[in-house]
Amino acid sequence: MIPKELLKKIRQIEIRTSHMVNDVFAGQYHSAFKGRGMEFEEVRQYQIGDDVRTIDWNVTARSGAPFVKVFREERELTVMLLVDMSRSHLFGTAGQLKRELAAEVCATLAFSAIRNNDKVGLICFTDQIERFVPAKKGPQHVLRVIRELLYHDPAGTGTDIATAIEHLNRVTTRRSVVFLVSDFQATGYERPLRVAKRRHDLIPITIVDPREMALPNVRFIELYDAETDQTVMVDTSSVRFRTAYEGRAASSAEERRRMLRSMDVDSVEVMTGEPFVEPLTRFFRAREARL
User: Fold this and answer.
1) pTM score, two decimals?
2) DSSP state for residue 148 in the 8-state scheme
3) Domain boundaries, the chain
4) Over 80: is that where the pLDDT of 35 sits?
């Protein structure tokens, strides 16, 4: 049975993210993601302003009056949320865990998808596949996705993005829009990512916490790695240590961005404790402009 506190949190996320979809992202999602193509629907009489290239010459010849073909976009898409649930996502220093931020971002994307009559599926992973929810439509299905993201207790501890992508390619038989939500604290996933990029519309979303990029000067603190169970004592009053820490974090982030740029994929970065509306809005607008 789901605890009342969790049910309350799910409800809060539902209200908050559905309002965002209605107030901020209305229309942007539809414009950012195209359907699978154009499908013939009917013919009708030519009207002033119609594109002459759509004239159906066979019908026109038989009827003696100009007729044009009418097409509609084959809109329905499948959106897959590929979400990292490793222990590093149980970290947060800005009033929010990375896992909670991931759930809110995914909820916003899922509600945007079902508003456009698209299907939404979920794959949760750590260093193994934790949960697979087949793609379906409807608000109740999205609530189930949110519940899984918040309530599921992972068996694994580490992060294996390569295995998650390989599983995605096995269970999805058609091209999908795939949001890969992770902090990308892993290695060995570049090649599978390139393969997935060729098969799907792949959008990596990086979850970051401010303390992963810089440490405050608070003298001695214990740093605990939840994925390896290791603890280390560091002296944050050391300028040399803080500079080295920030340098490694910045270098790692830039290396990830450079790799994603080389694949020509759109990507989004969101940070705990900060609104994610602006990064998502920039992403939607950039895709809309390019398409």
Assistant:
1) 0.83
2) H
3) 4-25+75-290, 39-72
4) no
